[in-house]
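Exercise 7b. Backbone tokens:
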């Protein structure tokens, strides 16, 4: 995998973005819609390093398919090499469009049988069991800490399935009203969640999420506390 740091498209209201970013995102989506794969790969390469755009659908919720580039490649019946390269850039085979279809479902419906085996999701890592409870507690944490932001602006909360598609996938998404966002990754037996803001004086807030619940933890970027000084024996 070329990219392990991916961006999730949480914001659906185009009005929440400035003109430049909105134009860039539409231009990127147009490349995938028009099967202009050379231009799309140039754009993905240009944005390195940084969170990859390969899984971002077009901005907007109403009357939008929610197709990411991999869905578009499946719809067009792109060449095997094109789809392989998208996956190498970190395209999620588990990602679902607005109607719940994955890229493999789109390819099957369109009769593009040469892509079916390649597009079938492959699990490289497993989520702590039961995964549905892990995702439920993850979303519960987000609502507990960021509920006012979600109430003012619609956010699409991310599924955890994409974390299973690579050995070290880290996903970030913007939260409107926070002046920052959320970054999360899968550890050996839990989900690590980092809520951060440009207004933070420190490293933000870190949480450990398991199928049993969630709790705040110390920032892994901060050094551990110094051991207590040795006590001299009393005479």
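Sequence design result:
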């Amino acid at each position: 995998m070329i990219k392990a740091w991916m961006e999730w498209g949480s914001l659906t209201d185009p009005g929440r973005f400035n003109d430049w970013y909105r134009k860039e995102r539409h231009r990127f989506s147009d490349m995938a819609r028009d099967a202009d794969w050379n231009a799309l790969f140039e754009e993905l390469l240009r944005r390195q390093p940084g969170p990859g755009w390969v899984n971002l659908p077009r901005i907007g919720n109403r009357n939008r398919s929610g197709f990411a580039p991999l869905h578009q490649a499946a719809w067009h019946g792109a060449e095997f090499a094109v789809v392989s390269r998208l996956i190498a850039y970190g395209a999620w085979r588990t990602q679902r469009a607005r109607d719940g279809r994955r890229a493999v479902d789109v390819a099957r419906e369109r009769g593009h049988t040469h892509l079916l085996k390649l597009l079938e999701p492959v699990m490289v890592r497993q989520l702590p069991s039961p995964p549905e409870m892990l995702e439920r507690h993850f979303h519960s944490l987000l609502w507990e800490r960021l509920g006012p932001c979600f109430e003012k602006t619609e956010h699409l909360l991310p599924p955890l399935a994409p974390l299973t598609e690579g050995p070290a996938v880290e996903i970030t998404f913007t939260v409107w009203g926070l002046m920052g966002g959320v970054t999360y990754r899968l550890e050996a037996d839990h989900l690590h969640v980092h809520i951060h803001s440009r207004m933070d004086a420190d490293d933000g807030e870190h949480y450990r999420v398991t199928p049993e619940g969630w709790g705040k933890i110390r920032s892994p970027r901060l050094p551990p506390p110094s051991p207590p000084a040795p006590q001299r024996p009393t005479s």
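Instructor comment: The CA atoms of residues 93 and 114 lie 15 Å apart. The chain has seven helices and six strands.
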